[in-house]
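Fold this complex.
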Amino acid sequence: GQQLNQSPQSMFIQEGEDVSMNCTSSSIFNTWLWYKQDPGEGPVLLIALYKAGELTSNGRLTAQFGITRKDSFLNISASIPSDVGIYFCAGLKTGNQFYFGTGTSLTVIP
Amino acid sequence: KAGVTQTPRYLIKTRGQQVTLSCSPISGHRSVSWYQQTPGQGLQFLFEYFSETQRNKGNFPGRFSGRQFSNSRSEMNVSTLELGDSALYLCASSISESTDTQYFGPGTRLTVL
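Structure:
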């Protein structure tokens, strides 16, 4: 199935640093979602974006819905060890089918 | 409110066998979607059910099937298992088919030997 292009594939950062990751597609999406997945668990919803240009925050997380509706960005400020995990973007098209990004693996070094 | 529950959490089967996985959505949620997650392919959409009807189907062979019951609980069945079916199978629920926010269960880890 179609997947979104997510980058970077992996990141190794020092605790306290800021993190940025993005997700791009050749298709337009109506909604963008960002999830975090811990090993052996299902993805947990972090942020949902519903309008082009929308900027939404959830604590230290900030995400934006791209103006073209073909991309989205997630930023994590002042990273902490519990931020470790795999972050997925997901786009929703008409018809309620989700397409997922390939994931960004984040490692935070204390 | 309890989250999405999936049973069993872990399963080991051999090639050729069949398997049934179960998903109970969040109370009040009527839409259930199933995904297969593998290291190589990432999250792949299998199918979505709403009000006991399959609304969407991904690009998987007919060996993969599902159903939804009147209480919104859903089951997924895989027949004639292949080694490549080894994966984490995730169930996600949402309030309705038009709702964009899905909540995932912890998944069932299926290993095919």
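The radius of gyration of chain B is 13 Å.
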